[in-house]
Amino acid sequence: MKIGILAVQGAFIEHERCLEQLGAEVVEIRQQKDLANHSFDGLVLPGGESTVMGKLICDLKIFAPLQEMIAGGMPVFGTCAGLLLLAKQIDGNPSGHLACMEITAVRNAYGRQLGSFSVQQEMSHVGEIPMVFIRAPYIAAVGENVEVLAEVEGKIVAAREGRMLATAFHPELTDDLSVHQYFLTMINQDKPVS
Ligand code: GLN
Fold first, then answer.
1. Which of the residues 80, 97, 100, 161 is marked catalytic?
2. Residue from 131, 65, 134 nearest 98 by CA
3. Which whole-number Å values give the CA distances from 133 to 14, 64, 145, 190, in the listed order?
4. To test the ligand 1 pocket, which listed residue (50, 55, 132, 174) has its Cβ within 8 A of the most ligand atoms?
5. Of 140, 144, 168, 182, which is the most exposed, with the fewest CB atoms less than 10 Å away?
6. Is 81 in the pocket of ligand 1 (CB under 6 A)?
């Protein structure tokens, strides 16, 4: 199983460690040729700063290839800023970035005082896990094909639409690998039988 991780900014190394511990091969995506030279089973869009990442993927000319891959059914897992890259609507930026997933996200939604916090909470199909939030968004609205996977204090913090998985929190910053395991299982389940 080969996973491409967007590695232009943010917490991509932490995702690599999690996926490698689960036996996946990881390739960093930094430029167009990284996408052209590899075939992937899935993609990870890490946390970081969505406005910076959104600009970098345009400047590096990997915006359109990434968008096409995801629209074509490539499984993708976005955390925090990665969730914002996937969202079709962002409060204050309705056109979004890659804009693939039928969710409306609100940035920096917990205010300055609650910039970072962690909770132990249930996520559907995964179980009870530690959830670390860092200047996190939440999901304010979802389309009809989106499954809500977790809520914290009444706000949606994890969701899935087909092969797209998004969490407002950072499973890669904990020792718990179960969300990454869920993503790999999701890829395997969806693989066409050849
Ligand atoms: N607040 C950041 C943004 O808007 C996301 C923070 C994160 O990824 N930890 O992009």
1. 80
2. 65
3. 15, 29, 25, 29
4. 50
5. 144
6. yes
- CB distance 85 to ligand 1 below 6 Å: no
pLDDT tens digits, one per residue of 96-108: 999 999 999 999 8
Segment 159-187 shows an average pLDDT of: 98
Q: Is 170 a catalytic residue?
A: yes
Please report, for residues 59, 61, 162, 185, the alpha-carbon distance to residue 165 in angstroms, rounded to integers and kept in the order given. 25, 24, 8, 12
Examine the residue annotation and report whether 128 is marked as an active-site residue of this protein: no
For residue 109, which of 89, 76, 137, 150 has the smallest C-alpha distance?
A: 137
Q: How far is CA 62 from the centre of its chain?
A: 17
Q: Which tens digits make up the pLDDT trace of 19-52? A: 999 999 999 999 999 998 889 999 999 999 999 9
